Each structure stands twice: as structure tokens, then as C-alpha cells.
């Protein structure tokens, strides 16, 4: 029986997930925001973390990497209403082991949990089709955008990623062009709206 910590800013969702899995897993605690989640994971070191990706304080890159550092042996399943390719792909690139859409949790969550607890990285087939689509932005562009959205200058991003400032600027304007938006500030807003920061 695996130990589990669940996080969602809607308690009714967490309770619903707990009911779905409590026959075969032990739910240790439930969090309502990213800070509480990190504290509970540090305290309990669970086998599995099931977390919403849109709750207060949640930033895909920093939260998932922090959870990985806090409890290296915990598998992480992201539970989300977002099926946009760049978000699914980003969750994987930042270290999630599984990804399930909330409206599919009733019939997909059990399989996903079983697979990730066996050490696999798993998402349901229809989401796999999404992640395999050509996404709007490449992994390199997502990396650059993540740092730009944190307020770093092109020079700072270049130093962080060991590339030239020119390369950062090139990708920045390429992203603006690809996403058909008008400015760098709109690009940053786009990143925040998709919880990529």
C-alpha cells in the first residue's frame, strides 16, 4: 500500500481523489496550496504526490523541482484541467512522472498511479497524442521563457543557460512571432497565464 499526499485548492476535489484511491493506498495528508504541499511532502516523504498544477503558489518548474529535491523517491502525478500541448510537455520536462486530466480522473487515475509507482512515466493515450504533437515552443524556448518571465535580462538568461545573449534575443522574438503576439510583455503574460513560470 503506497503512501500518498494530495494537493488541490478545492478541498472537495482532494476528498474525491482520496475516496477514489483509499481502498488501495494510504492518504497521509491533503494540501490546499503549493507551500503547504512542499511542507507536507517534507514531513511525510510519501511514495506518491498527486497535485493540481493551477493552485495558489504553484509554478510548474520551481514547484516540481523543489518537490523532487525535498522527497527524491516520491513519484509525482499532475492532475489538471489543462490539455494544452505546451503545458503537458512542460510538466514532463520539469520532472512529473504522470499527468491526468481532472475530468478523466475517475477512470485514468488508477492506471496512472499503478504505472508511476512501478517506476514508469505514464500519461493516458489521448494525452500522449497531445504531447507528441508539435508544440508551439521548443524545450529550449520554454527554458528561455521561464527565466525571462522571472524577470531576468537576456544577459542573465544567457549566463544561466550557457548561451549567447544574441541567441536569447533570437528565441524571444521567434516566440513572439510563433505565438502571434505583439511584444515581450505579452510573451511574459502568456507564460504566466499557462503556469509555465
From TrEMBL:
Domain called Response regulatory: residue spans: 3-117
The organism's place on the tree of life at top rank: Bacteria
Keyword annotations: DNA-binding, Phosphoprotein
Q: Which GO terms describe its biological process?
A: phosphorelay signal transduction system; regulation of DNA-templated transcription
The entry lists its GO molecular-function terms as: DNA binding
Which residue intervals define the domain HTH luxR-type in the entry? 130-195
SMART domains, per the entry? HTH_LUXR (SM00421), REC (SM00448)
Which Gene3D superfamilies has this protein been placed in? 3.40.50.2300
Which residues are recorded as modified (4-aspartylphosphate)? 52
Q: Which Pfam families is this protein grouped with?
A: GerE, Response_reg
* Protein name (database record): Response regulator
Provenance organism: Vibrio astriarenae
The organism that produces this protein has a lineage beginning with: Bacteria, Pseudomonadati, Pseudomonadota, Gammaproteobacteria, Vibrionales
